[in-house]
UniProtKB/TrEMBL annotation:
It is a single-pass membrane protein. Essential subunit of the Sec protein translocation channel SecYEG. Clamps together the 2 halves of SecY. May contact the channel plug during translocation. The chain crosses the membrane at residues 29-51. Keywords: Cell membrane, Membrane, Protein transport, Translocation, Transmembrane, Transmembrane helix, Transport. Belongs to the SecE/SEC61-gamma family. GO terms for biological process: intracellular protein transmembrane transport; protein secretion; protein targeting; protein transport by the Sec complex. GO terms for molecular function: protein transmembrane transporter activity. It comes from Campylobacter estrildidarum. This is Protein translocase subunit SecE. The gene is secE. Its main location: membrane. Component of the Sec protein translocase complex. Heterotrimer consisting of SecY, SecE and SecG subunits. The heterotrimers can form oligomers, although 1 heterotrimer is thought to be able to translocate proteins. Interacts with the ribosome. Interacts with SecDF, and other proteins may be involved. Interacts with SecA. InterPro entries: SecE_bac, SecE_sf, Translocase_SecE/Sec61-g. The keyword Transmembrane helix applies. It is found in: Cell membrane; Membrane.
Length: 59
């Protein structure tokens, strides 16, 4: 039981060291992820369309 109590005490100490991101930082990160995913999706859609067009020419 003493090990469990020590574990929770150490966990509490470590949690005080954590620096949580600000609301603005989270929002900026969300926007950047959204933009990157959108650009990659559009690129892959373009590549898919081009490859489909090439295959349909030969078939």
């Amino acid at each position: 039981m003493e090990k469990l109590i020590t574990y929770f005490k150490l966990s509490k100490i470590e949690l005080r060291k954590v620096i949580f991101p600000l609301k603005e930082q989270v929002r900026n990160a969300y926007i950047m992820v959204f933009i990157v995913v959108t650009v990659i999706s559009l690129f892959l859609a373009l590549v898919d369309w081009i490859m489909s067009s090439i295959v349909s020419i030969f078939v």
